[in-house]
Structure formats: C-alpha cells, structure tokens
Amino acid sequence: MMECKKASLDEYEKLVIRMNTPRVVIDNAVCVTSTLVKVDSARKHGVLLEAVQVLADLNLSIRKAYISSDGRWFMDVFHVTDENGEKLEDESLIAYIQQTLCATSTDGSDGEEGLTVLELTGTDRPGLLSEVFAVLADLQCDVAEAKVWTHNGRIASLIRVRDGDSGSPIEDSVKIDRIEARLKNVLKGDHDVRSSAARTAVSGGVTHAERRLHQIMFSDRDYERAAAAARPSVSVQNWVERGYSIVNVQCRDRRKLLFDIVCTLTDMEYVVFHATLDTDDDKQARMEFYIRHADGSPISSEAERQRVIQCLQAAIERRASEGVRLELCALDRQGLLSDVTRIFRENGLSVTRAEVSTAGDSARNVFYVTDAAGHPADPNSIEAVRQRIGGFGSLEVNYDPKLTYRRPQTDADETAGGSVGLFSLGSLVRRNLYNLGLIRSCS
C-alpha cells in the first residue's frame, strides 16, 4: 500500500514538473527571414522576462513577437535573427537556447564566480569614471568585469573586482570599508547635494547585471530629470471593458529593446498578459502591451499613467548611448582601466557608457565617448587617444550615427495618438493573436 502511494506521489511530482517546465520549439521553416522561437509555459510573475533575457544575452535581435496569456498558461512567439541579421543556423546555439529556456530559473544571475561586486550610483560628471578606476587601482583591486550607464545626469555602475594580490574575492571587511569610503568621496564630488552611494556584495546571488542597472537607476529616479528633446513615443490608455491598461511604444529599434521594456514593467510590478512587437524596414519598432497590476487591476490614476510613461522612456534611453564607439583589446593588467580612462579625460573625452570584460590574460573594453559637454567628440581628440593607447593595445574606432527617436509627443498627441494606438495597433494585436490561435476572439 505504501509503495503504491509512493509511486502515485512520484507520478504526481513528475506531472507537476512537466506542467511547470517551459516547452520550447525552434523552427527555421516558418519564416524566410528569421528563426521562430516559441515558448509555452505556466504563467508566473517574471516568466516573460526570463525568456526575453535569454535571447537578449545572446545578442539576438527580436524582429517580431507575439505574447499571450490564456488562463494559467503563457505562449511567447519570437522572430529572431543573429548579430548579422541572419536566421539561426548553428545547431549548438539552437540547442543552448532550448536548454536554457527550458531551465527553471528565478533571478537570472550572471557574471563570473569568485568576484566582489561594487554597485555605484551618483551624479555624472566628466572624468568621474577615470577617478573611480584610479581609486580601485590604488587599492589593488583588479577589475574583471564592469558595466557603466549614464542617463539624465546620473551614473550607475556594476563593477566586479578581485583582490590584486591574491586573485580572490575581497572579503576583508576593513578593506571593503576603505573601498566604500574612497568611492563615496569620489562619487559625491564637490557639488552633489543628493546622497551618492557605493555598495558592495559578494557575487553568487547577484541579479542579472543589466537588470540590476535598470533597478539602480530606477531607484535613483533618473526618469524624473530633464532628458533630451527627442524622446521615445510612449502612450498609456485603459481598455475599461476588459480591465487592461494598454501601453504603446514607438521608437528606433535596437538589440535588447524588448528586454529593457519588459524588465522595467516587471520591476514596477506589472504583469504583461498580451503583447506584440513589430519592426519595419526603417528600423522603427512598434510595441503594444496589455498589462495589469499584480493584483489584477489596471492603471488607476493620471499620476500613475505619467509615471509609467516616464519610466519606460528612461528604460529605452539608458542603453541608447550617444557618441563614438571605442573598442580596446589589450593584455589585461592591473591599472589598465585607470590608464585608459585617464587618457580619455586628458583629451577632453567623457564616457557615456562602458562595458568591460576579461578572459584569461586578455581584456576587451567598449566605451562610448563624447566631449565633456556631451557633444560629438572631436576626431582629432579621438586620433590623439588612439595614438597614445596604441603603445599597449589596439583601439578600434566606430563612428556609428547616433540613435534618434520620434519627435516628443504633446499632451494632445498622447490623447489623440493613444486612441489611435488603442483602435489601430490594438486591433492588429488582437487579429494577429487570434490568427495564431493565442486568444479565442478578436472582437
């Protein structure tokens, strides 16, 4: 009798596992120009973000997407291409995507083990990053990885370091306190009336780096400050009959765009029930999200509606780096980043975004730079930097044009445009989802 009960329990556990493990289908035959990635999974908070995060981490471009929740089940359909705009043909990559999407992750941590993580936030200014790396070099901290974002006059950074002498995580509380004190002084500067902070945490339970950067800047309320004149077009309307709030977004397409938006909605405790994404030949992305609060209610006030608009605009803008892209490949050594960013500062260049990685003895560092006033960098300054860095590394310069957005909306545009989005894009979403069998009715 006990054996029968145990067998029944085992079968039940297997059923639960099967029901909660996402089912992934990757198909190259459906679409001529992109690979179809279809994910079916039980609905839970954050499951959409987990799927989008996997694709974003592989630098895949999502050209189209259809997302729908039917009861307790989610169906996500993504049309993706690789970094060259081609369909996915690498069988090992396809197998990795299937394996990763089927895994039941929760927080999506990343980064190398055995590192101490520094979280930095404060008021941005020319030369700040140079000062930060100079402090770390002076304190014998080797930078293994780093991501730096700037937006609306603020800076957020996630820096993974190890002890320069032992190569181990920095666990000495006295040294950690000294690092925090020195970095806080650098971040505070002479004119920062707001509190700045340098926080430390040992890696292992660290949130996905780019998601964490969004969270840091969101907590810093960077979305409240004056931004560039041209902003992404975001509108929010309530569909009262169905109890949804509908968010429409139109902006320049780029990699990880969907991740940035879904990440922000998730961290603001909204649930995406249905969504669509489409891009055109002019690299413009049009997205629509049917959302509710975690308790099932739609957006309830004008203040909340404006906050959603501001936060999504900020999420899109944070990664849309302006400036010249500089990629440095060099032998890794202690103080490398301090030397490189000091050369930038001495030649009047300011870093707007940075991504640092190391592999063995090699370092690959990507910087986006402008002049000290945020204007396009002088080519002569870029050439001077290239000449000076040439002694210890290879610096590749890429003068990509700046990302541009649609003109900012006026209040009248948001009212009128929002209605247009609700009845034109909204109808398109419902029709596409119906044709895919993702909803029962398109009316």
From TrEMBL:
Keywords: Repeat. GO terms for molecular function: amino acid binding. Coiled coil: none annotated. The keyword Lyase does not apply. InterPro entries: ACR1-12 (IPR040217), ACT-like_dom_sf (IPR045865), ACT_dom (IPR002912). Pfam families: ACT (PF01842), ACT_ACR9_3rd (PF24931). Residues 36-111, 117-198, 325-406 form the ACT domain. Binds amino acids. This is ACT domain-containing protein ACR. It comes from Acorus calamus.
